[in-house]
Write a structure and sequence with these properties.
Helix content is about 65%, strand content about 5%. The protein is mostly helical. It is globular, with a radius of gyration of 22 Å.
């Protein structure tokens, strides 16, 4: 079974690789599909965006900081100095363009959310070398509720997610190329933009560096598999022209340049001011002790969706409410945990490259939180790993007939629709529906 699976995937990789790299029509189709995925996701995310017309959850921190950037608030003291500026700069640009209103605050998130869904499509195309599985992965990411909710709030995490996923997509396309330097440089710049939204963007960059470092180290040791296959995650001849200098430039210098450029609108070319900003970010977000929060949850509980984050809960009448809860779609995230086990098995049994890369980026984005001294944490920190789980689910389902994959997408869509009353304030719901949806006491 494993041999047949490897052979089938090898054939798919070769056919799709030829089509995407050498066939102009196929490249055009992939580009058009990417644009279409982005456009559809972007439009859907905008529906009812201005509801509620007030701050939800941490918008109270980031929107005032964005206002300050364009002179709509006093220049001092600096608001929200504990995070990098890019996501707030995008909110500020939107306010300048559309006015100071709820739609403008949240509009950048819908663009970034659309980019995140399109990036998952590109990741699927790089991993599975076929349109169908890539589109299924994008749909699962959208139906995963967590991305939907986060993209409709004026917060920082959706920016870090979008740029991280685009960087991961560039990295995955580069992984099997003999000359990956240009794509690695593109990935590095995008990782830098992710970090410029929120420092958690460092996690996927460090994961990419570890992957490249492991491959180069094994090559230095002249390691090879006795029964080598083209689908192995490691190849002795991989990246023959890639030097440590190239790695440093692409995945070290490029992220740093992209990151620091985003500080210029705030601090000009003052090196002292820019580096002082880094000191404040480190002091405020890493070392400062923070009190507990009603919706905080520990990182081991995130995959099981033990404690959601309520962005909004308003009673609009005696029996009606407007609610926004960030939870994640259990019909996607719980089965995806089994898919992770399948990925681990495929990595060990068949040395599958796609299984290895999915596991590496999932665990890199997730387990990094376990090593931080920060005691306050929330489920939305799991957003990058939760979004990457759609790739794990597709990987696991590809061993079954195609209809099983699309049935899974349909089931995920039903779960997403069922959760809409507590995902979108403009939908609204009744207390009785709310009670039915709260399956566990810890969700309330």
């Amino acid at each position: 079974m494993a041999t047949k699976l490897s052979a089938a995937r090898r054939d798919d990789d070769e056919d799709a690789g030829d089509a995407v790299q050498d066939g102009t029509v196929s490249v055009r189709r992939c580009v058009l599909t990417t644009l279409l995925v982005f456009a559809i996701a972007h439009v859907l995310l905008m529906v009812g965006l201005a509801s509620p017309p007030k701050f939800v959850f941490d918008e109270v921190h980031y929107v005032p900081a964005a206002r300050q950037m364009i002179g709509l608030a006093p220049a001092s003291p600096q608001l929200n100095p504990m995070h990098p500026p890019l996501a707030k700069e995008l909110i500020a640009l939107s306010i300048r363009t559309f006015g100071d209103n709820a739609f403008a605050w949240r509009y950048p998130g819908t663009v970034l959310g659309g980019l995140a869904v399109a990036a998952i499509y590109l990741c699927g195309l790089a991993l599975f070398a076929a349109q169908g599985p890539a589109i299924a992965a994008a749909l699962l990411a959208f139906f995963n509720q967590m991305l939907f909710v986060q993209a409709r709030a004026a917060m920082l995490d959706i920016g870090a997610l979008a740029f991280s996923l685009l960087a991961i997509a560039a990295f995955l396309f580069a992984y099997r190329q003999r000359r990956p330097q240009l794509l690695f440089a593109l990935a590095g710049a995008l990782f830098g933009l992710a970090i410029a939204c929120k420092w958690s963007g460092l996690f996927p960059l460090l994961t990419a560096l570890i992957i490249v470092g492991v491959v180069k180290l094994l090559q230095h040791w002249q390691t090879s598999f006795g029964d080598a296959e083209p689908t192995d995650w490691y190849q002795p001849e991989q990246w023959p022209g890639l030097s440590w200098l190239h790695i440093g430039l692409c995945l070290g210098l490029m992220p740093a340049l992209a990151y620091f450029v985003t500080f210029i609108p705030l601090h000009g070319l003052s090196v002292t001011a820019i580096f002082d900003a880094q000191r404040r970010i480190f002091a405020d977000s890493i070392t400062t002790a923070i009190a507990g929060h009603t919706y905080m949850s520990a990182w081991p509980t995130w995959p099981f969706l033990v404690r959601p984050v309520w962005f909004l809960f308003d009673k609009t009448s005696d029996n009606d409410i407007a609610a926004v809860m960030l939870l994640g779609n259990p019909l996607v995230l719980w089965p995806a945990l089994v898919a992770l086990v399948v990925c681990a098995k495929d990595f060990v049994a068949t040395r599958s490259a796609s299984a290895f890369l999915i596991l590496a980026f999932y665990l890199g984005c997730y387990l990094s939180w376990a090593m931080l001294p920060r005691t306050l944490s929330f489920l939305y920190y799991y957003l990058p790993s939760a979004t990457l789980l759609s790739l794990a689910l597709v990987h696991a389902l590809l061993r079954w007939p195609a209809r099983i994959l699309w049935v899974s997408v349909a089931v995920a869509a039903l779960g997403f629709i069922a959760m809409l009353p507590i995902s979108s304030a403009f939908v609204g719901t009744t207390m009785s529906t709310f009670t039915r949806l709260m399956l566990f006491q810890s969700w309330i």
